[in-house]
Write a structure and sequence with these properties.
Strand content: 15-25%
Strand order of the largest sheet: 7-10-9-8-11-12-16
Helix content: 25-40%
CATH superfamily of the largest domain: HUPs
CATH architecture of the largest domain: 3-Layer(aba) Sandwich
Largest sheet: 7 strands, mixed
Shape: elongated
Length: about 450
């Protein structure tokens, strides 16, 4: 069913009845139900408190207008009003709902962050307990008109899915995203509460936004409270520690803590604070390995958060994609804190999706104000990598069982590029091996 058919079918279901309150991008969702016919069967009220003073009068002052706090206030206000006006007269036969959104679509100058919050409170049976869906969305269309259109489709999908597609989380999310794409709209936060979602694992549903192709990335903060990435990353100095993390160890936490402690004062003084995050990609590090499952990712998220830092979960594994994503929310320098073995993998990758291969990947990464902080690793880790990759001709110098960034020598001609990145301080070694204690090895 397309958007038109979904809106009409809801209008024709006598038991579904409720209100719409939309701020910012117009009444894009309510418009669908009003235009397809039979709206009197669904729409109790529709309102757009577009003016800030009007919005404050209805929902109270003191919160940002495009925020989860404002959305929650709208949802409570509209739901309470709906029940107080209609529950006595038709509560025995009606499944009530309140749909609300507060959206910042593209402004005339094109200078704003295009995102929004979407909420739905609904009953599955007359008189039943209510359930809530809260979404944070990023609008990615290039024009205001197209962004409004995408919000309208999403809202109709959400209301339809809440009444017809609740067998599984996968079915629900797929229904919400029908007729849309990641190029148009991104859902990077989903919060589900109430009996309609009983038994659903909140972290697995959240991670499914990435595995299902509805978001480039989602964040799991260290404190366990889900939030939109923009709330955690906005104008922050950011340290990222990517990896697959099959075995989580305390040393992984040290990568972030040590790098955060060494951030230059001029960078932190210009920011709204700093944050360190582990990064887990669903994509494998090696081409012959399978993608991680949602269960594997959420299990590793829990293990990593015990080290005191949050986790960003990405679709892809390339460093330049991770930095490009974070650059959507902050223009301050991004520091990758990585072990030397992961850096070796990045330099060995063929980057078949890029016409310029490794050179294009390097340019995409370091033109985004990025620095790679390269930590030494035990020699055995490099030896294990050599056995599972196609690398040949790589050499290193070992010091007391460790290899430092200065002493890694990729195969030519990549070694020339690597020495340039070291000399230009795009790659910054952590520690230096004593010059008189080396033994040469090769992959």
């Amino acid at each position: 069913m397309d958007t038109y058919q979904k809106a009409l079918s809801i209008n024709l279901e006598a038991a579904i009845f409720g209100s719409f309150a939309e701020i910012g991008a117009g009444q894009e969702v309510a418009r669908w139900f009003l235009r397809v016919g039979g709206a009197s069967g669904t729409v109790a009220k529709t309102i757009s408190a577009y003016d800030k003073e009007v919005s404050d009068d209805l929902y109270g002052a003191g919160t940002r207008y495009v925020s989860e706090q404002r959305l929650q206030t709208m949802l409570k206000n509209e739901w309470d009003q709906l029940l107080s006006q209609l529950e006595a007269s038709r509560g025995a036969t009606t499944c009530f709902f309140s749909f609300v959104d507060t959206v910042s679509a593209r402004n005339y100058a094109g200078t704003n962050e295009c995102h929004g919050w979407v909420g739905l409170r609904f009953q599955r049976q007359p008189g039943g307990a209510a359930s809530d869906v809260i979404l944070h969305i990023n609008l990615r269309d290039p024009s205001n008109v197209l962004q409004q259109e995408a919000v309208g489709i999403l809202g109709v999908n959400l209301l339809y899915a809440a009444h017809h597609h609740l067998q599984t989380a996968e079915e629900f999310l797929a229904s919400v995203f029908e007729e849309l794409s990641l190029q148009r709209i991104e859902i990077d936060l989903v919060e589900l509460n109430g009996p309609a979602f009983e038994g659903w694992h909140r972290n697995k549903v959240h991670a499914s936004l990435v595995s299902g192709g509805y978001a480039e990335a989602v964040v799991f903060p260290a404190d366990g409270k889900l939030m939109a990435p923009t709330e955690l990353l906005y104008k922050k100095a950011v340290v990222l520690a990517p990896g697959i993390f099959e075995n989580v160890e305390e040393v992984h936490g040290e990568l972030i803590r040590d790098t955060l402690a060494d951030l230059p004062a001029d960078e932190t003084s210009e920011s709204k604070g700093s944050v360190g995050l582990f990064c887990i990609p669903f994509a494998p590090l090696e081409a012959n390995q399978p993608r991680l499952t949602v269960e594997q990712v959420t299990e590793r998220v829990e293990q990593l958060r015990r080290l005191g830092s949050g986790v960003l979960v990405f679709r892809e594994n390339e460093l330049y994609r991770m930095s490009a994503y974070v650059n959507r929310f902050t223009k301050l320098r991004i520091h990758f804190a990585i072990g030397l073995s992961l850096l070796a993998r990045a330099l060995q990758d063929g980057y078949k999706d890029l016409a310029g291969s490794l050179l294009e990947a390097i340019s995409k990464l370091f033109t985004q104000n990025v620095r790679v902080i390269a930590f030494p690793v035990p020699t055995k880790i490099l030896e294990d990598w050599s056995r599972t990759s196609s690398a040949s001709g790589w050499k290193w110098k070992e010091t007391s069982g460790m290899v430092y960034a200065d002493d890694l020598h990729p195969a030519e001609p990549v070694n020339h590029l690597y020495r340039y990145l070291l000399g230009s301080k795009f790659i910054q070694p952590v520690g230096h091996a004593p010059r008189n204690a080396n033994s040469a090895s090769s992959l």
